[in-house]
Amino acid sequence: MKVLITGHEGFIGKNLLLRLAEQPAIQVFLYGRDNVTSDLDNLVKEVDIVIHLAGENRPKKLQDFDKVNLGLTRELCEALTACKSRTKIIFASSSQVLQDNPYGASKLKAEEVLQKYSSDTASPVAIFRLPNVFGKWCKPNYNSVVATFCNNISQNIPIQINDASAELTLNYIDDVVDNFMVVMDDEFEGVVFPQVDQQYQITLAALAEQLEAFKSSRESLVTEQVGTGLTRALYATYISYLRAEQFSYELHSHDDDRGSFVEVLKTKDSGQFSYFTAKPGTTRGGHYHHSKTEKFLVISGQAKFGFRHMLNDEKYELVVSGEKPRIVETIPGWAHDIKNIGDSELVVMLWANEIFDKAAPDTIASTVI
């Protein structure tokens, strides 16, 4: 498949190019700022699909809306018509075509040109009326409040909110590209107006609050629910605005004669992750829980786990080595400890089902032996 992309230097174009580069069967041709109109005549002869992203949304002069958004679209359709091909076009339009402003008007006129091209040539045309699109590589302080907020909050720059209750309608860049890829492969006739499968709504106040929570999580260690939906997309976007020197952050290590204990990550409803070390011959633990449960994984070294039932005094021991991954769980009502029985430092990863609460630790000292 041969694909021509206009406006590849832009935010959507950069993300689309990277995705297409992952597909060895797709050959990409580019039309950008350094090209002249006459280049289109030769480029369109080579391709099966045109993804038309080039556009102007913040020109210095109002007439540049029509010059670029309408003019380039007309020139593209004229070049395609002249070569008498039935080339599919995917067009990045805007939801603002339904609003009374110069940008929306120019995009609507461009849509009308594409509809005529489809009618005259029987070529398939897909028009995506995109709302605010956000994601990595979107330019801050330009036309995306998400990009601006992500950049400013991550860099300790104040943000400005004029109407906290104002609601944004958003598409995430990966979803946009996914849908472009689907339409590239689809067989259809005439003009269609596909919508990006996943669309999100969020107020400016909620957006700022969520991004601030991402920032503060490095101190609190409490992660947001970043695995699905809008929070996942916003988190991926937020951290893409970190500078290289911000890629890492330190954790606090609690050290004593036995070794170290380090909290790594906390969740709001699924506990926390930590790790500890133990010097040869030392023992950690020596307590029981009423409700708290834990999972231990020996990363390196050799450990002996001891258990004692708090009612009937039943005892149990097992030896675990870092050479063979094995989870050891603590059971409510059983005292437990962990002894380093090897010659090297013991390193153990730990998950607890709840965040440690100093006011209600559910950790009662008790010997195992």
Low-confidence stretches: none
Tally of contiguous helical segments:
8
Head-to-tail CA distance between termini = 71 Å
CATH class (first level) name of the domain at 2-130: Alpha Beta
Structural class: alpha/beta
Beta-strand content:
25-35%
Biggest sheet, open or closed, and with what strands and sense? 6 strands, parallel
Task: Describe the 3D structure.
By secondary structure, the chain is of the alpha/beta class. Among the domains are: 2-130, NAD(P)-binding Rossmann-like Domain (Rossmann fold, 3-Layer(aba) Sandwich); 253-365, Jelly Rolls. The protein is 29% helix and 29% strand. It has eight helices and 20 strands. It has helices at residues 11-21, 38-43, 63-82, 102-121, 145-154, 173-185, 204-220, 229-239, and strands spanning 2-6, 27-31, 49-52, 88-94, 125-130, 132-134, 167-172, 191-192, 200-203, 253-255, 260-266, 272-278, 283-288, 294-300, 302-309, 315-321, 327-330, 334-340, 346-352, 364-365. Strands 2-1-3-4-5-8 form a six-stranded parallel sheet, sandwiched between helices. A six-stranded antiparallel sheet has the order 10-11-12-19-14-17, with no helix packed on it. The protein has a five-stranded antiparallel sheet with strand order 16-15-18-13-20, with no helix packed on it. A hairpin with a 5-residue loop joins strand 15 (302-309) and strand 16. The longest helix has 20 residues, at 63-82. It is elongated. The N and C termini lie far apart (71 Å).
